[in-house]
Design brief:
about 800 residues; alpha+beta; 4-stranded antiparallel β-sheet; globular
């Protein structure tokens, strides 16, 4: 009651104040009271407006801040996904597919329908690579990785593949190659020269810290111990073991049971030993026993090499004292084959000799590169630069066995497969199935048996374990692997598979039966071969002639000789004759589609868009009007009735587009040397002979470059994707599956040949055509989660990759 009275009193006082002021101001009381009320209302409105504007401004600022934070967070997550995808590819290259899959999964959204992070195509590719879903080949594939505390110095597999052994400072570790888990770790002599050899599938002899030691891994027991040793040689029949310790001028011989059989006196000489033998073993000495242990070959620090009779100690010098700094090799049957390197001046030789007489059977020399010999159960081999040669055991003559993609660092061989490690990093399996793997480091050590292979190097603290795996998916047909071809296609209309190269064409049914064959004349002059998807016909293009072979029976459907030029496009095969007549042929029917006439002096001509493109004296004309210098490098359809083509002079190029029949220059580009242009999916792919291929939109916006080790040879639309087909420097074919919207690579397809009617992919396995389903991102992630069985990255793995 008091509060209400007080309010009323204040109100009366304000009114009395206005009543007193009215006569002084010369106005009526009611007017003054109305003015006062309006002023109060205006003040209140101003305060409300200011509050509203403040609230709106603060809200807008907050929204802007939120958008900026969200954009920065998405960019951060996107960059993180790219980094994880790159780490995944590295782990796969290092031979660890499980960790690679975990990293790729971490780079992808957990929920594809409501993604909490951007979907990065690189991560999709990394996951498909890690899972091997598009690998339809048989052969050795990454299986496990042995993590080591230090870089290895030697790797080897037991005769029956029960164990894998790894030497690293100063330990010999034995692993189960199937699980990748260490079974036992044994201390070795504290020297990088330490060595080990298997005596059986379960027994290993090694240079232990207290002397030469034989150890049974299966039983977990030491069998016997000998004198201190850093080097070991075991005879082929496992009956004799020889050991040497650092710079001692003698070798000790043992039986399989550990009994001392005697000594070999080096007559005061010693083997080459590094000044600091605790750091690195250069493996540049030769210490080998022959098959029955009757002969020991030893290289010495004075650059000489001799063989000793282990029964009589008789010595036969094979290489006199010299400036030699490296020896390697071994015995094969009745021969000793070794390589030697002399430093100043540089000189390398590969020598095959008779150890009983000391006579040289064969000798090969080089002043630029070294020879790498290999004695395998299947034969005697030697590598030089990128080539591996087989050596005839009677004459020492060499013949080509297999080629690598780069200089050979080391190699091994089992019954049917070479394992070749290249100095630049990649390693490959060559034989019944050829496969190349990239590596982040050079592999200096390797071993291969029937079902397992090992690689390792001085620059990585891991050893890869690879396992032979047979493909478990669907095989469309098997073919004769002895038949040489460069491309293969399956035609759903004819139901036949076409295998072809510059040499000829072979047609097979889907059971692998040969239906028909054709040999192409003068294969060395063939410029290109092309396959018509509609009919299965194969066009053979020369500089001055053109032949078309049937995809149904391999018969010759059409042949045009004496041509001025031949040009293949999706419009047809354009044949320009010497008299200026230009005919466009349909590769499906072999019929001429149209004929035009041009200048007899033209070098090339293509009927296109109702007009005629010609090239004459280094200049391109359209319907007689000069439009650009250079030559025609490709043409294709765009839109409905539009067309486009590319021109290049070997340094600069231009793309022309035409939607109304009149071509206009769309954009220019730079190129090095010869190039080809492919028009696919609204893009133009420029593929130079030298340099990386690049892709542009038709109006000239650069999209991306392809840093690939090969040549972009073809492109085609594949559903919602674009397939970019490559030929590597070693003539292997692979395809990049590109997202048609971004052109980012979502999958790597080795041996891709095409797709069937139901959209499954057809891949070449090296002995058969196999089908693989194209998986979407949901199917890939579901497969990965099932294979990993709930496993996630460990804290150590997270720390390892966060540290990067």
């Amino acid at each position: 009651i008091r509060a209400e009275t007080s309010k009323q009193s204040i109100k009366l006082l304000k009114e009395e104040k206005l009543r007193l002021l009215a006569p002084i101001l010369g106005c009526a009381f009611d007017d003054l009271r109305q003015r006062h009320r309006r002023r109060k209302i205006q003040q209140t409105a101003s305060l409300i407006s200011a509050a509203f504007i403040f609230t709106l401004s603060f809200g807008s600022f907050s929204t802007y801040q939120y958008i900026q934070i969200d954009r920065e967070m998405r960019l951060k997550l996107q960059n993180q996904s790219y980094a994880l995808a790159e780490y995944s590819e590295r782990e796969l290259a290092d031979g660890n597919p499980e960790t690679a899959a975990l990293l790729a999964l971490a780079a992808l959204p957990r929920n594809i329908d409501a993604p909490e992070r951007p979907l990065v195509p690189d991560a999709e590719r990394a996951l498909s690579d890690a899972l091997g879903v598009y690998d339809a080949t048989d052969g050795f594939k990454p299986h496990k990785v042995a993590e080591l505390p230090a870089a290895p110095g030697k790797v080897l597999i037991s005769p029956g593949e029960r164990y894998a052994a790894v030497l690293y400072p100063f330990t010999l570790a034995a692993y189960d190659p199937e699980s990748g888990q260490a079974v036992v770790k044994l201390s070795t002599v504290r020297s990088a020269l330490s060595d080990a050899e298997f005596l059986s599938d379960t027994v290993v002899v090694f240079t232990g810290e207290d002397g030469l030691t034989a150890y049974d891994i299966e039983k977990g027991a030491e069998l016997w111990r000998g004198r201190p040793a850093t080097g070991i040689a075991v005879s082929g029949d496992k009956s004799v073991i020889a050991s040497v310790y650092k710079e001692e001028s003698r070798a000790t011989l043992y039986s399989l049971e550990g009994d001392e059989l005697g000594e070999i006196d080096f007559n005061g000489r010693a083997m080459r030993v590094p000044v600091d033998d605790s750091f690195l073993n250069p493996r540049d000495t030769l210490f080998e026993l022959n098959g029955d242990g009757g002969t020991l070959a030893v290289s010495f620090a004075d650059g000489s090499l001799s063989v000793f009779d282990t029964g009589t100690n008789e010595e036969i010098p094979l290489y006199l004292p010299s400036g030699a700094i490296h020896f390697s090799g071994g015995f094969y049957r009745n021969l000793l084959a070794f390589a030697v390197v002399e430093k100043e001046p540089y000189h390398s030789a590969f020598i095959v000799c008779d150890p009983e007489t000391g006579e040289t059977v064969a000798r090969y020399a080089s002043d630029s590169s070294r020879f790498i010999p290999l004695v395998a159960n299947t034969g005697l081999y030697v590598a030089f630069e990128e080539q591996i040669m087989a050596v005839d055991e009677r004459t020492g003559a060499v013949s080509h066995a297999v080629s690598a993609g780069g200089r050979v660092e080391t190699f091994r061989k089992n019954q049917d497969t070479f394992l070749i490690c290249e100095s630049s990093g990649p390693y490959r399996f060559a034989g019944s199935n050829t496969r190349v793997y990239q590596s982040g480091y050079a592999c200096h050590f390797a071993d291969v048996s029937e079902n397992y292979a090992l690689t390792g190097g001085y620059d990585a603290k891991t050893v890869r374990i690879l396992k032979r795996v047979d493909y478990s998916g669907e095989t469309l047909l098997n073919y004769d692997p002895a038949y040489r071809f460069s491309e293969a296609k399956i035609n759903p209309v004819t139901g036949l598979a076409a295998f072809y190269s510059y040499n000829g064409l072979r047609l097979c049914d889907l059971r692998g039966n040969i239906i028909a064959e054709a040999r192409f004349p003068d294969p060395l002059s063939v410029k290109d071969t092309q396959y018509d998807e509609q009919s299965g016909n194969v066009a053979v293009l020369y500089e001055d002639r053109f032949s078309l072979y049937s995809g149904a029976d391999a018969s010759l459907l059409l042949e045009k000789q004496g041509a001025q030029s031949v040009f293949w496009t999706e419009f047809g095969v354009s044949v320009l004759e010497a008299d200026g007549t230009v005919t466009l042929y349909d590769p499906a029917s072999a019929r001429p589609l149209l004929t035009k006439s041009t200048n007899p002096g033209a070098d090339c001509a293509l009927p296109i868009g109702g007009g005629l493109l010609t090239v004459e004296n280094g200049r391109v004309f359209f319907d007689g009007s000069g439009i650009e210098s250079g030559k025609l490098t490709g043409a294709g359809r765009i839109g409905g009735d539009g067309f486009a083509f590319a021109v290049s002079d070997g340094a600069n190029g231009a793309v022309f587009t035409a939607e109304d029949g009149i071509p206009d220059r769309s954009f220019t580009f730079e190129v090095i040397g010869e190039s080809e242009a492919y028009f696919t999916g609204g893009y133009v792919f420029i593929s130079p002979t030298h340099g990386d291929a690049a892709v542009y939109t038709l109006d000239g916006v650069f999209v991306r470059a392809f840093a690939e080790p090969g040549f972009l040879a073809e492109t085609e639309e594949l559903g919602e994707y674009i397939a970019a087909g490559y030929v590597s420097s070693s003539s292997e074919r692979y395809t990049l599956l590109l997202d048609s919207a971004t052109l980012e690579t979502v999958a790597y397809l080795p041996g891709f040949l095409g797709e069937t009617d139901d959209g499954t992919l057809v891949l070449d396995s090296g002995g058969g055509l196999r089908t693989v389903k194209l998986l979407n991102i949901r199917e890939l992630t579901d497969m990965a989660k099932e294979r990993l069985g709930g496993r996630t990255l460990t804290p150590d793995e997270k720390h390892k990759f966060n540290a990067r």
